[in-house]
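Re: Re: ligand-bound prediction request (bumping)

Still looking for help on this. To restate: I need the protein modeled with N,N-dimethyl-L-histidine bound, output as structure tokens. Inputs repeated here so nobody has to scroll up.
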Amino acid sequence: NMHVAVHARAHQLDAPTRTFAADVLDGLSRPQKSLSPKYFYDDAGSELFVEITKLPEYYPTRTELGILRDRAGEIAALIPPNAAIVEFGAGATTKIRLLLAAHAVAAYVPVDISGDFITAQAEALRGDFPDLAIHPVAADFTEPFALPEAVRDLPKVGFFPGSTLGNFEPQDAARFLNSARDILGDGARLIIGVDLEKDERLVVPAYDDAAGVTAKFNLNVLQRINRELGGDVDLSAFTHRAIYNRDLHRIEMHLVSLRDQSVRILGEDIGFRAGETIHTENSYKYSLARFRALARQTGWTLQQSWTDADGLFSVHALEA
Ligand code: AVI
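Reply:
Sorry for the wait, this slipped through. Here it is.
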């Protein structure tokens, strides 16, 4: 996009911000305006997400932690001796600590786009698990990346909790599972958390909480556009909406324009009609059968699945 290039130069944007700029202008020029959910996670957005995970309405984190805690012994029994655990999109270390406490492994490889964050988390982990070799990798885990030399000959166990898989479009979820198999190699295991389809009366509040934290999290992407791209978006002219799309098995988040308006981003005027939305996220919910079919199609064999007593969330052990 010529326009973006000219304005990006004029505003002296660095490479990641130029990509953000191009994605924003592309997403907002479509008939259904959209922004990628990966742009939620700047510092403010990452903090808001941590707040979300503690909300009474947001059942996934709490429920998955309960499964990992109750089943740590069974899960650990599937981890081969002397293994390296590779965590895709490593954030807080709460979940991995449950596995590490239940089973000694040789190495831990947290992979995340934000190098600073995982370096800090790795330091804290080092203090508590002095015998564990920690090899952080700063990479976009949705793209192929190389594992550190030091773990190349160890048996690999991938760890992908949080139902982050649900934020991928179905074809991208399949692409990720295929690529994780390539990265981890023959005989690898994958321990993955997957949110389950359930009554809309439970799902919608999880994405539209009474305290308005999720609304803030959603609106923060507009703040980010203003700050990083010099946009003039009036945040009070947009509102948060969560919609359960039963046919497509997903909860959608949108930002709804409250009036006819025009915003200016990097020299481009973008018009909104009152009620028009920016689609900012899908969070897919799987049935056990649909997730198992996806795993099978992408070359994985299901070893075991665990759910909580209410069937809200699932954790699966797969074998390559
Ligand atoms: C990170 N991801 C699994 C969250 C989810 O539930 O889809 C992101 C989120 N969006 C709104 N609330 C939480």
